[in-house]
C-alpha cells in the first residue's frame, strides 16, 4: 500500500504524495488545497500533501463504523496480537522509520531512532493490556457478583503534532485499538508521511481495513473531527491555544476529549548541584530535538552562586555542531519566531551568552544555533512564553522560595526539574513545583511506560494522562454487571 522509504543518509530524498488512507485504501483527499512537505535540513520539498475536507472525515467515519461492528467483537487478546505483529514489523523496519522521521521532521538520525523506539515501547504497553484490563469480579453479597468490563467507545479520533510524527500517534493508537475502537488519525500537515507508514504497518500486521484511517488536512478537518456526531472520543496534542479551542469544541459536541498543550518548563539549579551531571543534562534538555518538544527546558532558574555551572553549560553549548549535535528547526517561520524572541530579550536587557542567530548548518535548511540568554526576567517574553526552539533563558534568584514562586507563577505545568545533591531539597522541590511531570537531576522527565504522560494547568485540558492505564480508560467505557443466579436462604437489601 505504501512503498518503502529508501534513504539511509542525510542526502535529500523525495517520497510519495501524502494522501488519505480510508477503508484500507489510499485515496486522494477531496480538497483542492495543496502544500509542500519540506525536509527542514535542506529547505526543499520532499513530498506534497493535499488537504482533505469534512467530506473525507464523514467518509472515514462511515468506513470505520462498518469495520468497528466486527472488530469490537474480537476478544481483547486477539486484538492485542495485531499489536505484537506490528511491533515486530517496526523492529524489522526501524532504520527505514528512523530515516523517514529524520527527513520529514529534521531530527538527527539518533534522535529520530530514539523516537521510533519510544513509539515501539508505547506499542508494547498496548500488548500488555489483555493482562492489565482483565475483568474485575467480586462476590459482593451471597450469590451476588459484580463485574467490571472495559468496552469500546466506537469510532474515535486523534490529532497529532509535527514534533514527534511517529511516536505521538502511538501514544493513542495502542490503547484505542486494543480497547476495540476504530480510529481516525489526522497527522500534522507539516509531517504527514510517518502516519502513512504506521497505517501500512498495521495493515501488514493484519488490522482489518477501516479500523485505522488517515485523513490529511488542516483546520477544516480538525473542526470536522470535533463536530462529527458519530465520533465518540477525541485526543489532541499541540499548542495550548489550539488545545483549549478543540477541547471546548469537542466537549460541546458531546465527545470525551483530552487535549495536551504547550509548556514553559523550568530547571532549578542550586549551588550544590553536581557540575558534570547538571551541565550534560541541561544542554541535552534545551537543545535536544532543536528544543521542539513540550518537555524541553525553557528556563533555568539559577539559585544563588551557580556561575560555575552556568559557565560549564555555556562552554558545552559553544562546542555544539549544527547538523551533528542538533538538527534544524521545522520551518523558516520558526527560524524567524525564535530569532525574534532572542532579539527582544537582548533589547530588554538580557545578556546573550551563546548566540545562535544566523547560524549556518551544513545544508540550506532552517537553522538556529543553541542559544543561552542570561539575566532574563520572568516577565520578558523569553522568560514566560513558549519559544519552541533551542533557547534557554537564565533567570537569577537568591532563594528557593523565589524559584518556586516563578515556576508556580507560569500558566503552564508540563514539566519541572531540580538539580541538587541534597535529598531534602529534591523532596521539597517535588512537593512545591506546579507540574505534572517532574525530575530530580533529569531535565526531560518523560515518564516511561507504564507511567502516563500528561501535564497540569494550561498544558492539559481534560482528565487523566494520554498514555498508560489512563489512556486505556480514556478510549474505553466501563460497564458494571451485577449478577445473581440462585435464590439465597439468607436475605439482605440486594436480594
Protein architecture, described:
With 495 residues, the protein is of the alpha/beta class. It folds into two domains: 264 residues, Aldehyde Dehydrogenase, Chain A, domain 1; 176 residues, Aldehyde Dehydrogenase, Chain A, domain 2, CATH 3.40.309.10. It is built from 15 helices and 22 strands. A seven-stranded mixed beta sheet has the order 14-15-16-13-12-18-19, sandwiched between helices. Strands 9-8-7-10-11-21 form a six-stranded mixed beta sheet, sandwiched between helices. Strand 15, helix 12 and strand 16 form a beta-alpha-beta unit. Helix 1 packs across helix 7 and helix 7 runs parallel beside helix 8.
Tell me briefly what this model is.
This protein has helices at 54-71, 76-92, 94-105, 109-132, 169-178, 193-204, 219-227, 240-252, 275-287, 307-318, 332-347, 381-384, 400-409, 423-432, 468-474; strands at residues 20-22, 25-27, 34-39, 44-50, 136-141, 144-152, 155-159, 182-186, 212-214, 231-237, 256-260, 265-269, 297-303, 351-354, 371-374, 391-397, 412-413, 415-419, 437-440, 456-457, 460-461, 476-484.
Give the topology.
Elements: E1 20-22, E2 25-27, E3 34-39, E4 44-50, H1 54-71, H2 76-92, H3 94-105, H4 109-132, E5 136-141, E6 144-152, E7 155-159, H5 169-178, E8 182-186, H6 193-204, E9 212-214, H7 219-227, E10 231-237, H8 240-252, E11 256-260, E12 265-269, H9 275-287, E13 297-303, H10 307-318, H11 332-347, E14 351-354, E15 371-374, H12 381-384, E16 391-397, H13 400-409, E17 412-413, E18 415-419, H14 423-432, E19 437-440, E20 456-457, E21 460-461, H15 468-474, E22 476-484
Parallel strand pairs: 7-8, 7-10, 8-9, 10-11, 12-13, 12-18, 13-16, 15-16, 18-19
Antiparallel strand pairs: 1-2, 3-4, 5-6, 6-22, 11-21, 14-15, 17-20
Helix pairs in contact: 1-7, 2-4, 3-4, 4-5, 5-15, 7-8, 9-10
Amino acid at each position: 500500500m505504501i512503498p518503502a522509504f529508501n534513504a539511509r543518509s542525510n542526502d535529500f530524498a523525495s517520497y510519495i504524495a501524502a494522501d488519505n488512507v480510508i477503508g484500507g485504501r489510499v485515496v486522494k483527499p477531496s480538497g483542492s488545497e495543496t502544500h509542500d512537505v519540506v525536509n527542514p535540513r535542506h529547505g526543499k520539498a520532499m513530498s506534497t500533501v493535499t488537504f482533505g475536507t469534512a467530506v473525507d472525515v464523514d467518509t472515514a467515519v462511515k468506513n470505520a463504523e462498518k469495520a468497528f461492528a466486527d472488530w469490537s467483537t474480537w476478544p481483547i487478546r486477539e486484538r492485542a496480537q495485531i499489536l505484537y505483529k506490528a511491533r515486530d514489523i517496526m523492529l524489522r523496519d526501524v532504520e527505514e522509520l528512523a530515516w523517514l522521521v529524520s527527513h520529514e521532521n529534521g531530527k538527527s538520525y539518533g534522535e529520530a531512532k530514539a523516537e521510533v523506539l519510544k513509539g515501539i515501547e508505547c506499542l508494547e504497553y498496548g500488548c500488555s493490556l489483555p493482562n492489565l484490563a482483565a475483568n474485575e469480579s467480586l462476590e459482593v453479597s451471597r450469590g451476588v457478583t459484580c463485574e467490571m468490563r472495559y468496552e469500546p467507545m466506537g469510532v474515535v479520533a486523534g490529532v497529532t503534532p509535527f514534533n514527534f510524527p511517529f511516536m505521538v500517534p502511538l501514544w493513542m493508537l495502542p490503547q484505542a485499538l486494543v480497547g476495540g475502537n476504530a480510529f481516525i488519525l489526522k497527522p500534522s500537515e507539516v509531517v504527514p508521511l510517518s502516519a502513512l507508514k504506521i497505517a501500512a504497518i498495521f495493515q501488514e500486521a493484519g488490522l482489518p481495513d477501516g479500523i485505522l484511517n488517515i485523513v490529511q488536512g488542516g483546520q477544516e478537518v480538525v473542526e470536522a473531527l470535533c463536530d462529527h456526531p458519530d465520533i465518540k472520543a477525541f485526543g489532541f496534542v499541540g499548542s495550548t491555544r489550539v488545545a483549549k479551542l478543540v477541547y471546548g469544541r469537542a466537549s460541546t459536541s458531546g465527545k470525551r476529549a483530552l487535549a495536551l498543550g504547550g509548556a514553559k518548563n523550568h530547571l532549578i539549579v542550586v549551588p550544590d548541584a553536581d557540575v558534570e551531571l547538571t551541565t550534560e543534562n541541561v544542554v541535552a534538555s534545551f537543545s535536544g530535538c532543536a528544543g521542539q518538544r513540550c518537555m524541553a527546558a525553557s528556563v533555568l532558574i539559577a539559585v544563588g552562586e551557580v556561575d560555575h555551572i552556568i559557565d560549564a553549560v555555556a562552554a558545552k553549548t559553544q562546542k555544539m555542531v549544527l547538523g551533528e549535535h542538533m538538527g534544524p528547526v521545522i520551518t523558516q517561520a520558526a527560524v524567524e519566531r525564535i530569532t525574534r524572541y532572542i532579539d527582544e530579550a537582548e533589547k530588554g536587557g538580557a545578556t546573550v551568552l551563546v548566540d545562535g542567530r544566523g547560524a549556518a548548518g551544513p545544508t540550506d535548511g532552517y537553522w538556529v544555533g543553541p542559544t543561552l540568554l542570561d539575566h532574563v526576567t520572568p516577565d520578558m517574553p523569553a522568560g514566560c512564553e513558549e519559544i519552541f526552539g533551542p533557547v534557554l533563558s537564565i533567570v537569577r534568584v537568591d532563594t528557593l522560595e523565589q524559584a518556586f514562586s516563578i515556576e508556580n507563577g507560569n500558566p503552564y505545568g508540563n514539566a519541572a526539574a531540580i538539580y541538587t545533591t541534597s535529598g531534602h531539597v529534591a523532596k521539597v522541590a517535588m512537593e512545591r513545583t506546579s507540574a505534572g511531570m517532574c525530575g530530580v537531576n533529569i531535565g526531560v522527565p518523560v515518564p516511561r511506560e507504564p507511567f502516563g504522560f500528561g501535564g497540569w494547568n494550561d498544558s492539559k485540558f481534560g482528565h487523566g494522562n494520554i498514555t498508560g492505564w489512563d489512556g486505556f480508560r480514556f478510549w474505553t467505557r466501563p460497564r458494571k454487571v451485577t449478577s445473581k443466579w440462585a435464590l439465597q436462604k439468607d436475605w439482605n437489601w440486594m436480594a
